[in-house]
Amino acid sequence: MSEGRLIIASNRLPIVIKKENEKDFSMTPGKGGLVTAMAPVLRDRGGIWLGWPGITDEDNISDKKLKELMDKGIKDSGYDLEPIIFSQEEAEKYYEGFSNEIIWPLFHDLPSLCNFKEEYWNIYKDVNERFASKLTEKAKPEDFIWVHDYHLINVATRLRKRSLTNKIGFFLHIPFPPLDVFLKLPWRREILQSLLDYDLIGFQTQRDKRNFLQCVRRVLRFRVQARGTKNMVYIKNHNRKVSVAAFPISIDYDSFAEGAESENVAKRAWFLHENLPNRTLILGIDRLDYTKGIPFKLKAFKRALEKYPELHKNISLVQILVPSRVHIPKYRELKENIEKLVGEINGKFTELGWVPVYYIFRSMTREELLAYYRTSEIAFVTPLKDGMNLVVKEFCASNIEETGVVILSEFAGAAAQLGEDSILVNPYDVERTADAIYNAFTSDYTYRKRRMRKLRRSIKKYDIFWWVNEFLEYGKEE
Ligand code: GDG
User: Is 463 one of the catalytic residues?
Assistant: First the structure.
């Protein structure tokens, strides 16, 4: 690969524009790990980030206003933003439809939640074509194009049709399902063929990579060639060689560790402790999503209180639920179900001076989040399936006293890296997860210290900067 610029395409831009009223728009710059990690590379190599700023054509933003907000969002960052504004129909059928009602549930092994509609697939391809058209316009032949996630799987196919010869990489942030689940997708051949139009395909874990390779072998009957290194395999797609590897995503470890030590976070953490004295806090932070397994988690907590009376008055679950996709009926139902379970637990067990579950339904500032991470003794991370799960890594990085314990679902991508030093659970197994809570609660200091040190060391070593470099290094290989 050449040393050209880096061109990133992702569904969302690293800024969000929102219509406030008839005349006004607001702009919030993204602060996630991906933006932080990409920023230095984009600055060094120069580049462009393409994506959706969050508004549709019905919001009627003027070109001038859009440019003004874009410029403000990336000021002095050394790269450009290229907005793709969707129509209302595209937002509904490509984003909410194909991406979130088909790929998202299917790839999380929940085919019964899929709404397979041909129309969604057609609009998905159209939107991928729009990204490809913009990329063709902007990319020079030596630039490396890095496409992110399940919304844009079809982009490389569209670029190849336009005879673009750039090296193109793709990273899937969510899991790749096993063969028997993937086979249910009506467009299974097209999706696999689309992925094989990339030069490099990155998955979160070896599990996802294996699932993908099995689908390629069985559905397309392609040969898969292992190379010398453990991680990398090649697939011959006609006259091109496609590289496939696992790259577990991570966080900006230092910024969490340093943030947790800051005075403001320490003050907030102290305040939380003051209000909840002599109590072990077990923390869950999840986006409102059925893949996060929150009802099972609550049932396990309830079961733990039933089985182990010594937990009464000595432990509280802080469950932070971050609003997401709330206009979709399935998500609203999930929220109601969660709130009903919280009500049941608190109704049954609350005593004077002790509330078993603190339930918070809103977004947090980063400082608040860090204070909860720092104050809690146990992380309770039990998704039914998750590409990686960054919350667990953030909890460990923020656990500067190194005495925290992690209860982790074996179905989170993070389990491959952190499983050995966590208490692993099958989230569907309420009885054993309840026991895991008790074990975490009663685990001794030396045991906690040893394991948390190892967890933190591993997350520090393989941080988000490692991840970006690793992917781009592989991208350079011939
Ligand atoms: C997808 C994959 C994969 C959450 N609430 C607040 C807040 N957050 C931040 C957390 C964390 C992130 O959001 C959530 O990341 P996860 O990894 O847990 O989950 P997804 O959003 O589903 O992400 C996942 C990830 O992509 C990366 O590849 O790990 O498997 O599903 O960083 O801190 N941040 C703030 N306030 C909140 O209220 N500030």
Answer: no
